[in-house]
Structure formats: structure tokens, C-alpha cells
Amino acid sequence: MDTIFLMNSLWVMVGAVLVILMIGGFILLEAGSTRMKNAGHIAGKTIFTFGLASLVFWAVGFGFIFGDNANFFVGLSHFFYSGYEIEGINLSSSVFFLFQLAFAGIAITIALGGFAERAKLSVYLVFTILFSALVYPVVAHWIWGGGWLAEHGKQDFAGSTVVHLTGAMAALAATLLLKPRIGKYNKDGSANNIYGHNQVYTSLGVLILWIGWFGFNAGSTVSVDGGFFGFVALNTNLAAGAGAVAALLISWVVMGKSDVTTLLNGALAGLVAITASCAFVDTWAAVVIGFVAGMLVFYSARFFEKRKIDDPIYALSVHGAAGVWGTISTGFFATPELATVGLPGLFYGGGLTQLGVQLMGVAVSGAYAFAVSFAILFVAKKAMKGLRVTEEEEIMGLDMSEHGSYGYPEVFMAKENKLTS
Length: 421
Description:
Layout: H1 3-33, H2 39-66, H3 93-112, H4 121-144, H5 148-151, H6 160-178, H7 199-217, H8 228-255, H9 260-277, H10 283-306, H11 315-333, H12 353-383, H13 391-396, H14 398-403, H15 409-420
InterPro entries: Ammonium/urea_transptr, Ammonium_transpt, Ammonium_transpt_CS, NH4_transpt_AmtB-like_dom, RhesusRHD
Membrane topology: Multi-pass membrane protein
GO cellular component, one term: plasma membrane
């Protein structure tokens, strides 16, 4: 067993751990962005759905992505992976499997953000199984598993489309079918702010996600040879910083205040956007990509709110809009030296070819993820007598209605004691 094999295996294992750690970031981000009465529910269902998605990925997801005997749609082998070695990778196959599993877990976590504060726990269970089997693996196969978009040279190094846009389009399907939370919109169509209960949680969640993203992007090199992972990590950090600064500035100029939520979303949008291009662009382009993403997320959130699309954790803007921008950005900025997949971008003499491939990949992948997710949820709505908890349960909070206990027992039990005394 050579040294490079062992070092690659160790590096990708570190990357897998960092990506799984991002689940903790999402717990803090989602719980902090929503109300106290739902915090325990959000934390618990996130752990539960990651566990369930892991089992589905082991059973069929990995095989649909990377299996042999592939057709236009999916791969058709490597089901119920048992640790055997896979040809074509210079690292432990079990480590590679775990790394890919972590990405599938992030995709479903993003998707479930669109269900926040109003969906039944049973809906999370059903959707996690079907999304992890029928949605995410198909798009991943098209782009990463040697599918038809890969044959066209689609550039998506670590998943702006495969993970983030796919998750966001599923979240969009959920928000449309679930409808807005009680109290979000007035009869005249104006929106009310439903504030998250803890900005410290959301800030810490973003920091954990930022750190985890080094596993997400730099880990996707799946190699230590040449130290290229360091360059990918540098681009990742620059884009996140530019996104945070841009979002702060645009909110300050437009609103007269530097909104904390917008700032945090800007950092995440920069990370999402650079995920596709981190290995294909120069550092200056990473700054531009992140800066544009930071501004885009501000206006995207306003766009969805005006259309009465209630998105509590901004999944559509952070992962959807920024995912689209990040994917098409390689069509502009990919350099001849770094474009190991596809062609150089428009600004480097590559013409419109790669930009066209990127646009096609976004359109087809986004449409597939939305259509199948919508169909799954539409059927589930009929079969399960609705996707949403009752009005009484929603007002009570999902901590108590779905789990029978409070995430903050001292606070809520003290209130109940006051009411009964």
C-alpha cells in the first residue's frame, strides 16, 4: 500500500468528518432562524433524517450514482455497499463511500429547510427516503457519476448544482405545497417578520458551516498530490468573505442598517457559489463570484417574500439563487490551466460553449429536482391526509405537538405555570 494511497485516504476521511460536522451547523442555523417553540424539533429531525438518508444512500443511492452498467438515467450496481474496493480511485473505497454519503446528507438537510415550522414529522420520513433514492442520486449521476451532463463537460466541482440547487428546488416544492406559516402574511399581501429566536446560534451555525466547507470543497480533490486542495480552500475562503462583505454593504445601503441575517446569508451564499468553481477559477474570480452571490442573496430573499413564498431559513436564496450563479460562473471565469473538466470560460477565450453547458445543466437538473420532489409531496399530501400539522399544533409548536417535550423546558413550563397559577 503506497504512501499516497494512505495520505489520500486520510485526507478524504478528514473531509468526510468536516462535511458531517456541517449537519451541526445546519442545526444551529435552522434552530436559531426559527422560533423557540420549534427548536428541539428542528434539532432532532435533522439528526434523524441524516441517519435515515445514510441508510438509503448505503442501500441504493451510491449505486445509482457510481454504479456500473449505467444507462442514461442512473448506475445499476454497488447497491448495499459492503466495503469492497472500487476501481479508478487512489484511496480507500470505504472512505470515498463515506465522503459521498456526507454530501447526500447535506442535500436532504437543505431540502428539508423548506418544511420548517409546519410539516408533520411523518412527512420528513417519507420525503427523506424518496429524495435520497430518486432525486439526489439521479442528478449526482448525471454530473459526477459519468452521466450525460458529465459527457457534455458540465463543471460542478463540489456541488453548487448537485447538492445545493437540488436541495433548494426540493425546498421550493415543499414551500409551495405547505403554504406560508400562520401569521407570515396579512390579508393585503404584506409580509410580517417572523424573527428567529437566537442570532448567536445562527452566527455560530454559519461559522461551523464555513469550517465544514473546507471538507466540502477542498476535500473534493480526493487527493493530497501536489497540494492543490490548498488552492481550492483559499478560493473557498475568499468567496465566503466577499459574500459576507457584499451582503452587509447592500443591506446597509438599502435598509439603512447592516442586517445580521443578511450578512450571514451572504457568507453562505459566497460558499455555495464558489462550490462549483473553486477548482476552475483564479483567486480574483473567486472574490467576484462571492461578492455577486452576497448581493444576489439579498435581492433574492426579497423576491421570494413578495411572492408569498415563505422560506424560513432562506434555502431558496442561499442554496438556490447562489447555486445557479455559482454554476454558471465557471462559464465566464474558468481558466485554460484549471479547466480540467469542460472548456475555458467566456472571459478566457472559450466562447459561449461552456456557458451554454452550464446553463443547460442548471435548467435540466433544477427542473428534475423540482418536478420529482413536487410529485412526491403531492402524492404524500393525498395519501397522508395533508403535509402540515394542524393549526392548533403549529401555534403550540412542534416541540410539544410532535415530540411531547420542549426544547427549552424551563421557559415554556414557567409560562404554563404562570397561566395555571
